[in-house]
Write a structure and sequence with these properties.
Order of helices and strands: EEEHHEEEHEHHEEEHHHHHHEHEH
Number of domains: 2
Strand order of the largest sheet: 3-2-1-4-7
Distance between the termini: 13 Å
CATH superfamily of the largest domain: ATPase, nucleotide binding domain
Number of strands: 12
Radius of gyration: 20 Å
Helix content: 25-40%
Structural class: alpha/beta
CATH topology of the largest domain: Nucleotidyltransferase, domain 5
Shape: globular
Number of helices: 13
CATH class of the largest domain: Alpha Beta
Length: about 350
């Protein structure tokens, strides 16, 4: 059992590289049934210069050891500042906080290579030194060392917080990558399973950014996709991606669905407008999620509802597609906000827990 009440801070930066989510969380109860109360939450966006420097590290041809080493400490400062900011917002001192859990910023993830590995930056020692609070920052590497895939990492907390004795639930996160946690009705921890469906916002953001010459970073609210038409030829080509047919456990990331993938789409279908390209990859994102439920989950666990969190939960066109596709599978779809869950804060809360 943990102490009656303790305060932890969770820090998260995902594959979209939008910024740092920071949550100060009061946690009580044992690990079998924890209770979490968000004291304060903030999202601190990266400025464009910082974001560009991080993106340089994703490609081996532009990533060098000196750049990686420098950005490891630069982002450590940024994560520390995020922790200090959320502490100030919550009226907390360092002595009030038991520990900080920082996911870091993934720059390369290779769980299936000859030597499985994953690499996050945002130096935990810098966070600890600057905040005066113990920092844990090796979540993904620890999971791979233990024989896991290093992702998704949130299922433990989703089991602890959302297990339901009355119905089976899908907890669907749509960040840069889409990943799902399956909580069968009345499950124990060993019955929970999770995997990456495929791209989340990553292809949508990539297409919008390239086609707008960098003026836009994402399709706010899904408005661009809503104004376009799904191109069946492009959709068919995209659905041939071998990742979708791989059986779980499986994870993916920017190494597959990043800038080169987006370039191939735009080059091969150069006659399509930004609106139609965006509409098609948005629909693809929803379809891949629905297909993965039918192929890999439904045969084991027939689910009653899906709760969607992450940045994709605010893309109304994506959610509209997902609700229609999942209704065909007799699964009702809700956003986290519709369920009273802070969709932005969920992953930061998870790393606190």
């Amino acid at each position: 059992m943990m102490a009656e009440k303790q305060v932890y801070i969770g820090l998260m930066s995902g594959t979209s590289v939008d910024g740092i989510d920071a949550a100060a969380v009061e946690i009580s109860g044992g690990f079998s049934a924890p209770k979490c109360r968000i004291i304060a939450f903030e999202n601190l966006p990266y400025d464009e210069a910082m974001r560009s420097r991080v993106f340089e590290l994703f490609a081996p041809e532009t990533s060098t050891v000196d750049k990686i080493g420098e950005m490891n400490f630069v982002l450590g400062e940024a994560f520390a500042n995020a922790a200090l900011s959320v502490m100030k917002k919550g009226g907390l001192n360092a002595s009030d906080v038991t520990a900080i859990g920082s996911h870091g910023q993934t720059i390369f993830h290779s769980p299936d290579g000859k030597v499985p590995f994953t690499f996050q930056i945002g130096e935990g020692s810098v966070i600890a030194e600057k905040t005066g609070v113990t920092c844990v920052s090796d979540f993904r590497t620890a999971d791979i060392a233990a024989g896991g895939n290093g992702a998704p990492l949130v299922p433990f907390t989703e089991f602890a917080l959302f297990r339901n004795d009355e119905k089976s639930v899908l907890l669907q996160n749509i960040g840069g990558i889409s990943n799902v946690t399956v909580l069968p009705k009345g499950c124990n921890a060993n019955e929970v399973f999770a995997f990456d469906n495929g791209p989340g916002n990553m292809l949508i953001d990539g297409v919008v950014s390239v086609m707008s010459d960098g003026r836009l970073r994402f399709d706010e609210g899904g408005k661009i996709a809503e104004s376009g038409e799904v191109d069946e030829k492009l959709l068919g080509w995209l659905l041939e991606e071998p990742y979708y047919s791989l059986k779980p456990p499986k994870t993916t990331g920017r190494e597959l669905f990043g800038a080169l993938y987006v370039s191939r789409i735009i080059e091969k279908f150069s006659k399509l407008s930004m609106r139609d390209l965006t509409a098609t990859v948005t629909y693809l994102t929803a379809k891949v999620i629905a297909d993965s439920y039918r192929e890999f989950i439904k045969k084991q666990t027939v689910c009653d509802e899906m709760i969607v969190s992450g940045g994709g939960s605010f893309n109304h066109t994506l959610i509209k597609h997902l609700k229609r596709l999942m209704l065909c599978e007799s699964v009702r779809v809700y956003t986290g906000d519709e369920k009273g869950i802070n969709s932005d804060a969920k992953e930061a809360v998870a790393f606190a827990l």
